[in-house]
Amino acid sequence: MKNPNRSSLSTLLGSNHSSENRQADSRRRRLCHSDGKRQLKIEQLEVRAMLASNGIVSDDFSSSTLGSVWTVTDPLDDAGIRMTGTQLEVSLPAGTSHDLWSNNRNAVRVLQDLQGANFEIEAKFDSQVTEEFQIQGLLAQMDEDDFVRWEVHFDSSTATPTLFVGSLTNGIGGNITSQSLNVVGSVWLRMSQIVDTWTFSYSLDGNTFDFFTSLTHSLDVSQVGLHVANHATPESDSPAFTALIDEFISTDPLQNLPVIDVWYGDSQTFGALGQPQTWINVLGNVMDESGIQSLTYSLNDDTPVPLRFVASGHRRLLNDGDFNVEIAFADLNEGRNTVDLTVTANDGHVVVKTVGIDYPGQNVWPTTYAIDWSKVTNLQDVGKRPPAPWGGWACGAEARGPANRWPV
To answer: What is the model's pTM?
Structure first.
């Protein structure tokens, strides 16, 4: 269900991918005392602002009528839908199944049209699920046979409310993740899609959101919004249910993503002049407002390797978020290689950035060698830089990280 014209996540997020941003990054490094992290954040925000509009409108449901941006689907035409003045109320009768799965898609859906490939939506549900299966949650769908649902429902096997993520692809269910939830009162659900990466989180106070799960799933979403359902076996045992939705919020899905800054760009060459040491170093910094949960790299699609990103106790990292991918020349293929950096934030957001590594092969470093620093624009063109951010050619070469311990 993938649109071949959709951009990759690294294309959307990588501020170094465009030539303009690469030039801006180069100019930034030539400033002797520039605040590189702050500047990168500004550049990322500019990229995100251009991608934010998706046509989805937030709604506090305080009007006397449901807004025209919403489309209501009531397949059995037996649901009660009204505005209370502060909430959207959706009522389902007992004795009839209004499920949303492979063999039954009679749930009530209240949806908006999505104008774009990325979204993040959130809703506050004031109603409580107390009988199996009373269901309320968020929905993103391409059509009747292809969707992703994120919900809280009551499960009699655990006698508790249960968080649930599932998807339908060509009418077949999958991607099922569930977990009991100890909740008395309102619950907030949040769901985002950025290209093919989905993230699901929830809150019990509307302020602190806990990560639930994430998945990779290709779906060209056309509508997003709410679903309300009930079901039981036998169907006659389906409980009545009234869902109360206090608010629906649409936010920029890119505003809270982790940022990966690869200091020497997304395409680097090693070994052009020779091999002055055993390893190459791909350096950079990763940051996220919620904090970093994990950071890994993978060389040429091999098994991911964990990376350190906490400076304390590690003499080769100056600041928290700094990382050093150390790869032996012997592990590189001659020609083009790829290093995939994968960062997972504490809020569950995941970003993957690919760095291209060119290795020309077994070259031998000249025995007589001189550098005219006034003509240098890229340190890697004239030497093998140590694992620290270097730059400031107008001021002479300088290290902007841990002390230089290897000769250039």
So the answer is: 0.66
- Assigned token pair, 326: 């150390």
Residue 248 has pLDDT above 80, yes or no: yes
The pair of structure tokens assigned to 406 is 């290897």
**316 phi and psi angles, rounded to 5 deg:** -95, 0
Helix 19-30 vs helix 36-51: crossing angle, to nearest 10: 160
**pLDDT tens figures, 7-40:** 444 445 443 333 333 333 333 332 333 333 333 3
Domains annotated for the chain, with CATH where assigned, are 9-51+257-399 (2.60.40.10), 71-251 (2.60.120.200)
* Residue 153 confidence (pLDDT): 96
Q: 119-131 in b/e burial notation, b at 16+ Cβ within 10 A?
A: bbbbbbbbbbbeb
Residue 108 near residue 228 (C-beta atoms within 8 A)? yes
Residue 207: count of CB within 10 angstroms of its CB: 7
What is the DSSP code (8-state) at residue 59?
Answer: B
C-alpha dihedral sign at 56, 60, 61, 64: negative
> Which residues have C-beta within 8 Å of that of residue 348, sequence separation ≥ 6?
199, 200, 201, 211, 212, 213, 214
Among candidate residues 327, 151, 316, the one with its CA nearest the CA of residue 243: 151
Q: What are the structure tokens assigned to 281, written together?
A: 């170093």
Inter-residue contact 99 to 107 (CB < 8 Å): yes
- Neighbouring CB atoms inside 10 A of 385's CB total 21
pLDDT value for 238: 95
CB 190 within 8 A of CB 202: yes
Which residues lie across from 225 on neighbouring strands?
111, 139
